[in-house]
Amino acid sequence: MPPETPNPVTGEAISGGPPRHVVAMPYPGRGHVNPMMNLCKTIATKAATINNVTTLIITLVLTEEWTALIGEPPDLPNLRIRSIPNVIPSELNRAADFAGFLRAVYSKMEGPFERLLDGLEAHHPVDAIVADTYLAWAVAVGNRRNIPVVSLWTMSPSVFSVFYHFHLLEHKGHFPADLSGGAGFVTRNAISIPISIPTYGGARENFEFHSTSGRDPHSLSVFMIFVENLHGDFSWWRGVILPCPAPDSERGDEIVDYIPGLSPTRLADFPTFFSGVGREVLGLALDAFVWVRRAQGLMFTSFYELEPRVIDALKSTLPFSPIYSVGPLIPHNTLADHTTRSTTKNDHVDYYFKWLDSHPKSSVLYVSLGSFLSVSKEQMDEIIAGVHESGVPFLWVARGDAERVQKACGEKGLVVPWCDQLRVLCHGSVGGFWTHCGWNSTLEGVFAGVPMLTFPIFYDQIPDRKLIVDEWKIGRKVVGAGEVVKRAEIASIVKEVMDLEGEESREMRRRVGELSESCRRALADEGSSEADINAFFREFLRSGIRRDGDEDGDENSSLRGDGYEDEG
Ligand SMILES: O=c1ccn([C@@H]2O[C@H](COP(=O)(O)OP(=O)(O)O[C@H]3O[C@H](CO)[C@@H](O)[C@H](O)[C@H]3O)[C@@H](O)[C@H]2O)c(=O)[nH]1
């Protein structure tokens, strides 16, 4: 290969040397695997083969369960999938005990990942690891092995800034706080929190305290528990949950105006870490933010123009310089036609597109409550009745509930267990998106240019709603403050958003159309996302960069091009 032929991405002469090797490790959840997979495809396609030289290979690491869940692997010669054993609870019931699932992710995956890495490195040294920010241990692995790590944050940059600056909430007295009466959260099972009870001899026993009433146990200040001691005797134990400030629902309206890049935000619009499961996993989340400071780069699944103030603020705050916004990391490349879908691979997926084809432009409401958590049965019944009463035709993704929802909905809508969401959103007959505000869904709604009816359930979905409704003004708020929203209100909101002649609806459509344009520009040649992907290639993948300390001796803070000979 003539050495003067430059690699269009890295700018290097192609010498025929070994290709660069990136290992990608997503957090095991749909909302995280999807964007990581899309990133891998983007990078692999970009670097595939230049003048018959493979310049880069990517190894995407998944649990065995996720390897099966993703189905057919992507058909790209330089992207391969490797599995680690199923050392964590199954995806099928992770929502039943989210805290337990997260603890397992934090404690059980590192060993298998590192063993896999040993095997990979024996054949082909790894030049960079791209790991989900929540996999704090992946940064430790990279640091130990002198491999630069890029941390992939799959939620909004605003939420990153909140966690990164969490100490400010504590300093200003906004955490801890009891926001009773704030946004509600219901798991399918009882809510539980770990407690520690003194036993005879001063030792402590650990239990899970379950609130089967559906009430958040953090909102209880005193409880009684029936304990069996070592002798088989039973006794009542009276416990106190601390810290548990006096409930004060007013606090939800307090304004926080000091998180870099964020506009003034009500406490109630922060992620749900004040109580419940969010509170229970907060320590783990914050741990990830200790480790992200030791990564060599940060990547957002979003695009710069969506939250420029936050990204600029983070760029001036973060100790590691490179921040890449390479999104939206959604499967937009697979869309042949953004407005209508004319060809399908098989009949199984075809039927709902045929159904969509039979409806007028922008007339259908697409309803999805996400891939992970559910709302209470009472709320679900109200949503079904409200959407039905609105008279608007709808396509509803209801996972395991599909049959029940279809029965309750009657003829007006089509209920499916799963669909090709981005294609559906881009179908010309879809005119509204009822969303739980997961970040990928939010990005997909923006890309498709569809106004949203926002119904967040948990965690980052609450601030995502604020972005959609208050900042970008491309959606309406459906959920009330922790209360069940009734069918009449739901029907009225659905009608208003889907009324193509209504003034508010027209304005929302205009604004979301503009955002969609800006999103597509970001992805196009010379767009901001394209530029950041190129920067990632240049900065991380030029001649075998290995992290090896910078001039002023901080071994965690910089990159240096040292070549493969550093290996070992
Ligand atoms: O029928 C369906 C339903 C969903 N999806 C896809 O599944 C993904 C779902 O992702 P997201 O919208 O982010 O929802 P969750 O799976 O709930 O995402 C989790 O991960 C996100 C990113 O970290 C967080 O923002 C969420 O709060 C968290 O619940 C999206 O790409 C959808 O297109 C489909 O393809 N078909």
Summarize the structure.
Helices cover 36% and strands 18% of the residues. By secondary structure, the chain is of the alpha/beta class.
What can you see in these coordinates?
By secondary structure, the protein is of the alpha/beta class. The protein has 3 domains: 20-158 and 287-331 and 525-540, Rossmann fold, CATH 3.40.50; 162-283, no CATH class; 337-522, Rossmann fold, CATH 3.40.50. It has helices at residues 30-47, 64-69, 98-108, 110-123, 136-145, 157-164, 166-171, 276-280, 282-291, 308-317, 347-357, 377-390, 402-409, 421-426, 439-448, 461-471, 487-498, 503-523, 528-541, and strands at 20-25, 49-50, 53-54, 56-63, 79-84, 128-132, 149-153, 191-198, 204-211, 222-228, 234-240, 255-256, 265-266, 297-300, 323-325, 364-368, 394-397, 413-416, 430-435, 452-454, 475-477. The protein has a 7-stranded parallel sheet with strand order 5-4-1-6-7-14-15, sandwiched between helices. Mean pLDDT is 82; it is low at 1-5, 181-214, 220-247, 337-348 and 543-568. Bound molecules: uridine-5'-diphosphate-glucose. Residues 29-32, 34, 154-155, 368, 370-372, 397, 418-419, 421-422, 438-441, 444, 459-461 line the site of uridine-5'-diphosphate-glucose (UPG).
